[in-house]
Structures are given as C-alpha cells and as structure tokens.
Request: fold
Amino acid sequence: MYLNFNNTAFITIVLWIIGSLFILCDQKIKNGRLIGNLFTIIGTLVIIVFVIILWIEIERPPLRTLGETRLWYAVFLPIVGILTFIRWQYKWFLFYSLGLAILFLAINISNPENFDKTLMPALQSPWFVPHVIVYMLSYALLGVSSAVSAWGLYLIKFKTFKPELLNKADNLVYMGFSLLTLGLLFGALWAKEAWGHYWTWDPKETWALLTWLCYLLYIHYRYKHKQKIITALWILALSFIVLLICWVGINYLAVSGNSVHTYSD
Amino acid sequence: MSNNRKIIWQYPWGYAESFIIAITLLILGFAINYIGKSTVSAIQLPVNLYMGIAIIILLLLFYFLFKKKPFVKWLSGTPAAISAICFYTFLVLLMGFIPQGLPKASGFIHEIGLSDIVSSHTFLFAQIYFLVILGMVTLRRSFPLKGKNIGFFLNHFGLWLTLFSASIGAGDLQRVTLTANKTDAVFYGVDQNGKIIPDLSIAIQLKEFNIEEYPPKAFIIDDKSGSILNKELFYLKKGNKGEIMDREVEVTEFYKYGVYMSNKFHPVYDIGAAPAAYVITKNKKTNKVNEGWISCGSFRYPGKFLELSDGMLLVMADPEPKKYSSKVKIYTSSGDAFETTIEVNKPVTVDGWKIYQLDYNHKMGKWSDISILELVKDPWISVVYFGIFMLIAGALYMFWIGNKK
Ligand code: HEM
Reply:
C-alpha cells in the first residue's frame, strides 16, 4: 500500500545526475555518452514505474492535482530531452529538460501530498487521460522550444546566434502545437459528452485558446518571415508566458471561479 | 514589408493596411455596442441555414471572380491573416482578464460590450473578419488541390468549418433542465434563462436513483471553529488502520447503512440510514485511548462524532459520490415507452434530444427522490464534428511531418 515517493524521486534524480555527468565528460570517458544515456533512461524508467504503480494504487489516473501534473512533467520532460539529444546531440537540451524535471520532483518532495482516491463523476471518462496527457506532452515540447527562444535571445546579444537553432525550435513548436490542438479538441469532444456543450468559455478554455492563438501567430509569422529572427524569438518567449498563465497562473486570476479545470492542491 | 517604402493604401497591402482595418473594426464594434446598447442575438433555423449557404456562395463567387485582383491577394495573404489572428487574440485576452457574463455588470466596460464579449458586436466583427480571411486563404491554396497541401487543407478548412458552423448554429442549441420524479412523467423543462418550455415532445419518469460512493473520510476538527485540523487522509473502512495528527486510528466496524439505537449503531437498510464506523484512537504522546461510534448522519438522522482531548473532534465527512445514475422510463412522441439508465458522462439520445444526468437533491443524497436531467438539442453538431475531425486529422498530419518540406 505504501508508496515511497521521496525515495523513488531521490533515486531518479541521482541516476539523472550521474548520467548527465557522464554525458558532460564524454570526451574524457570511453563510451561516456552511451553510459550517460543509459543512466538517464533508467532514471526515467524508475519514475515511470512509480507513476504506473501509483495509478493502480489510487484506482484513478493521477492527473488531478497540481502535484500529480508535476509528476507527469517529470516523466515527459526527460523523454523529450533524451529523444532530442539522441536525435540532434544537443547537450544543453538534455540538461535543461532534466534540470526542470528535477525541479518538479524537488517541489513534490518538499510539498508531500496525500493521494486522494476520489474523483468527481464528471471526470471519470475515457477522454480524461488522452486530454490531459496530450496537454502535458505538448507543454513539455513547447517548454523546450521556449528555452530555445530564451537561449537565442541571449546568443543574439553576443552576436553568436545561428539561424539553424530556430529551425530546430520550429520543429518542436509544430509538434507541440499540433498536440495542443488535439488537447483542445479532445476537451471539446469530452465536454460535449459530459455536459452537452463543447465550448463554454470557461477561464481555462479561454486561456488554452489564447495559448493556442499565440503559437498560431508564431507559426504564421515564421512561415512568412524567415529572416526576422528577433521578432520570432520574442513571440515564442511571450507565448510561453501565456502558456504558463494557462497552466498554473489561472488559479490566481480573478476570472477563475469554480471551474472544473481548477486543480485542487 | 517591401524594400522601398510605399504609400499607404497603395497595393499590395501589407501589415499597415491590415492592422488599420482590424483596429477600425474593433473600434466600430465598441461604438456600436455603446450606442446601440444591444447584444448580437443568435439567428435560428431556417434563417441561419439560408444565410450560411448564401455566405458560402458569396465567398466562392467573390474568390473566383476576383482572384487576380490585389484585394483578394491581400485577403488571402499572411499580413491579413496575422491581423485577423491578432484581433481575435486581443478579444480572447480581454476575456481572459475580465470576468464574463456576470449578472450585475455595469459601467463603461459593460457598455462597450466587454463584460460579455462573445455576444458583442466587436466579437461578431472579429469572427467575420477571421472567417473571410481564413476562407480566402483556404480557397487560394485548395484550387487546384495538390497532395502536399492536404495538411494545409485539413487544418484551414477544418478550422473554418468548425468555427463557421458553430457560430451560425449557436442559436439552435437548446438546453433544457428537466426534474424527473417518481410519481409522474414530466414533459416540460426550464431553459437557461429560466423560461418554462411547456412541451418537449418526450416525457420522463424516474424509476430509481442510484449513487455509488467512495468510502467516507475521517477528519479531526476544532470543536469551536469547526475548521479541519489534519492534513492526513484517512478512509473509514472496516479494518483500516492509520495515523491522524499523532494518533493511531483503527476502524473496527463499519456499516454502509447504519441506524443508531440503544447506544450503538446497527446495520439497518432504511431510508436515511447513514454510514457509521466504530473507531479506536490512541494518542501516541499520552497513550490515552478514545473510542466510539462516528457517523456523518443524513437528512433523517443526526451525525455522531468522537470527542478527543484538547477540544478536538473526530468526525466523518459525507461520502463523496463516485458515480450517480438514474433509471428512467422515457415516453416518446410516437407513443413508444422504454426504460434506460442515464449516467454522468453516459448520455442517452432520444428523438433528437441528448439526455444528460445533471444533478439530484443533495440534501437527501443517495435517497434523492428527484433526478435533474439536462436535455440538449444541437442540430448542427454533425457539421461541427466533421470540422473537428478534419482538424484532428490535420493535427496528426502536422505532428508527423513537422515543419519539414
Ligand atoms: C488549425 C489552425 C491552423 C494551422 C494548424 C495552420 C497551419 C499553417 C501552416 C503549417 C502553414 C504553412 C504553409 C504550409 O505548410 O503549406 C500555414 C500557412 C498559412 N496560414 Fe495557417 N494555420 C492555421 C490557421 C490559420 C488561420 C486561422 C489563418 C487566417 C486567419 C491562416 C492563414 C494562413 C495563411 C495566410 C498562410 C500562408 C499561405 C500561403 O501563403 O500560401 N491559418 N498555416
């Protein structure tokens, strides 16, 4: 019955750090990159197994509280980071995503949560899991792309920016944006099935649409103006701020009443 | 956006012209809201159907007659698209900060239509501007339709169709709540504005209302303030052991339906019978033991709590519903009658109505003698869904291809 989150998270963090160190020193150590990858992958598997067991224990998908969504980030960010690292060999990419994942786990360690089994009837739907997971994945991808924008703005200051960097980010935006679209649409289909209407301008819906529109703007601006790097970087950075408001800030906004989307703490 | 500066309003139009037009529409919208003091009322069948068809024909005609003209080139180009997306984004941003649809909104913000943006003229203009531009872009890239444009078509036409059908169909959406009871079949309901809809063409009688509940939770509360003190989570189930606020707690007996008689609870299934648990607590610091029955009570029977030391009480919270459902008998206009079960997230479709389980009498909880149902009629839903499925296909395509050309 008793799942120990702190120990699991600690093991994962240690594995990730060891893996990162190997990757960082891969020129000095033979097969350092391979070993490093193995460590980060095993660390990620540990936390994945934890989520699966937790899911079974609490008899509902662990997607209800803010802490539970942070847990999913700690799963998805490393997956995105490791895949992009294997594909494009960007070390800082991997370190960024592992760093964020470690931050999320650390927040969860310092705010222990009691895993409440109850889930209101309206949330017990086959749409629940795809709706939330698609968003989580999308946020993870867009999060990485926003890191590119911040990094890019920094590089531009020192005149060492290379346009290829933004091309890589575009790919992440396209993937993240399409998942964002799916999240919105799954939400709409679910709402129709649960409440009889697919769109009610609930504050969370409004902000999700806003996030979507910002990235839509980015995609179209980029498509037409490949050369205007700085404006594109700024749109990308600001879009992520809107995304963050949508994800966590919404609970503090005046418009947010008692919506089905407010996370319990 | 051209190399040499051009005079404004000289073709080809770029960002300056696009944004001037968008901002003019924005201000015009506010002005009409302010002067007209009216909101946009939704059109209904069959007017909206004719209007929809007329708009589509007009857009097609307009495009094919003038596609070589610079005006249409502008309408189907990126600067116009970006101005339309910005216009729309701006309104949604306002919606994200200004609480919408409050019953007692007033003041300037209200008068220019910002307290209910969706039904303001400004939003209508944004919607039209957006749909015209999106329509033109779609037409320009879809004739002739090349294989590599399939993703573009799915995304742009899918979005156009979804927004267009959802907007012109909005007036036909009917949502009515019907309160079903066990004594007779109800054939009327109340719409969102509190207006009684006398005949729904179907009638519904409640046969049985069911709630499945989670085990109740135990809390320690302050006797005086009544506020909850513990952070731990403890479910009251037979045999459950745990700790709450440095006290060992054990449940030695649990009845889902209990009635209190002669100093103890008995397992009795009776209307209003409430969950009851026998708990033994031991303070780990003082080794003091408190034990006794607790119950959350019901509309019929009072609750019971256990007194601990230091003015603290151990109480049982009302169990939370896991799911609730109504067994109902439905009579249709054609004279048919049948029984079915309606559950949250599992609506039933009858005669064009989709029937949802909405609510029940919370005071009576699982003994509720009524069930509140919501009946929804949405004749445009299949068109909207068609658009949504195109968008889903477009999103999957986009995910797969990325921005590689
Ligand atoms: C579901 C939402 C949308 C998605 C996924 C999307 C995606 C795209 C993509 C990927 C392109 C690049 C062109 C290509 O790949 O062939 C593009 C081009 C374009 N989009 Fe969108 N878009 C969406 C909505 C809109 C909207 C709402 C508008 C206008 C209001 C618009 C106007 C345009 C225009 C004007 C182009 C340039 C086409 C050209 O010059 O050939 N799009 N869009």
Observations:
- Helices of chain B lie at 15-36, 47-66, 70-75, 78-97, 108-111, 121-142, 150-169, 381-401.
- The radius of gyration of chain B is 31 Å.
- Residues 231-308 of chain B form one domain.
- Chain B touches chain A through 52 residues (CB under 8 Å).
